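Researcher: Quick sanity check before group meeting.
Model: Go ahead. Protein one:
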Amino acid sequence: MAIVDQQPLGGSNRLAIVDADPTAGAGLAGTTGDLCIHLGNAIYHKVGAGDTNWSRSSTFDDIADPGNGLAIPVVQSGACFMTSAGAETRTLAIPAFAGQQLTLVCDVYVGDIVVTAAAAVDVLGSVTLTFGNAGDTLQLIGTQVGGALVWRVVGNNGVALT
């Protein structure tokens, strides 16, 4: 597969990807797993072997803070700006798809926000994410380990992981 053209087009980006020989079992048509491309704030993906149809699966948007004791929505990529009114909790399910991006930010701090992830977010097995100050930020990406979707930390500014 080759990227043959990338240029601004009417205020947005255009990316052309060509499958050199889709009958040879290589490139886009012969890919055995999911593929994901990020263009601007949009995420495009195709699913499974032989699928050459790309779909826009989500955009990187604001994700509403669910509030104390509730689950952070993970159906799309985005950023969740959390506000605490005291010591609070949230839960975090596994990602919806590989390549999904999620940024968690403690926007307003009155007390710690403890987020419990459904699966480890790092190789140390951390499932408890503690936001202890305004501005604490954790950036996650959805990936696959042993056939299961999991989050992995790609950036951390102040969040305690245990």
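Researcher: Fine. The other one?
Model: Protein two, sequence then structure:
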Amino acid sequence: MLPPEALLEVRKRLPARSAGKPPLLFVHGGYCDAWFWEPYFLPWFAAQGYPAYALSLRGHGASGGRDSLFIAGLDDYETDVEHVAGTLSAAPVLIGHSMGAAVVERIVAKRPVRGAALLAPLPPAGLLSIATRLAASHPNFAMRMQNGDPSRLSTPVSASACPASRSASAKLSSGASSTSNVPYGSETMRPPRSHTAARTWRSPKSRPAAFAALGATYQ
């Protein structure tokens, strides 16, 4: 397991007025980062009164750890999520997509959480069988995925996927801080002093946690 990452990018969208609703923490999948949630998820949930946060796991987006991207594992990503969750004002509902869903699953298996949602989660057996079918049916696409560097996809991909995020991506790439005229906020989180400190956030025990999984059935 790698040491705690010094810099973790967190993008957020906050409601105009506090509605007393719990924060949501979004965890991206492979080959993307926190921008994945910006065009639709963060603003939509903020409009419903939920403080919405999305982190970039180490080695992704504007987070540190690119040098260790290809040796980082789910345990390291779990530590990233635990740390960011510990910085929020209340225990968050965790929402993970694909690989991010696998990270959320690991947390749910170890501790009580306020709630969790898994979007297109990874199958228990991993992606080998899916990758094999993809290589057979769409070899050109598989080759492009194999040659891609997920640590460098953020700016060009986010600019093409969401034109509104171009200015935010440019500022993040240049190291500049977000300003009020940028539609999405971004900040960096310092690591916890110890691995134990990352696990200080607690969820209410008065009601059972809500849990949802959305995605295809893998065979």
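Researcher: One line on it for the slide.
Model: Residues 8-214 form a domain with the Rossmann fold fold (CATH 3.40.50).
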